[in-house]
Amino acid sequence: MKVLVDTSVWSLALRRKGEALNTEEKRIVAELTELIREGRAAIIGLIRQELLSGVKTKEQYEKLREHLSSFPDEAIHAADYEDAASFSNQCRAKGVAVFAVDILICAVAIRRSWSFFTTDPDFAIYKKVLPVQLHRPRK
123 with 132: CB under 8 angstroms? Predict the structure, then answer.
């Protein structure tokens, strides 16, 4: 099964220096490396955009863009946006505040029966309402 990888995880691996990572962050990067090796890491355009945004220099931007070019964007369809709207309504009905980008990410993962790999604590809250499967490092 594929794993949709969030900005937070890609960022640890591609935008931070290894020596600056704590033990848990190193486990997360090792897991991403393994998912890539297995051909299971997936990305969508919104996550690519978030990763490339805020990069300080053109050289850093180009290097990061080159790294990410090995990973094709998963296509997002009208049904994904419709599901995202429905999921947003479900969350709000349960008193859970949502971000449109986060809910679209949930919709993409849920529609494809993929798990989602993130360090963002908001997704644990969404999981209380939605059937999103959160991926955890295996080691």
Answer: yes
53 with 86, same domain: the answer is no
Task: Round to whole Å and give the CA distance between 137 and 95.
Answer: 30
Q: Are residues 8 and 46 in the same domain?
A: yes
- Cα–Cα dist 41/68, whole Å: 11
Statement: residue 52 has pLDDT above 80 = yes
**24 belongs to a structural domain:** yes
Nearest of 17, 18, 72, 82 to residue 47 by alpha carbon? 72
Structure tokens at 133: 């499967």
Task: Report the predicted TM-score, pTM, of the whole model to 2 decimal places.
Answer: 0.93
Q: Which domain holds residue 85?
A: 78-133
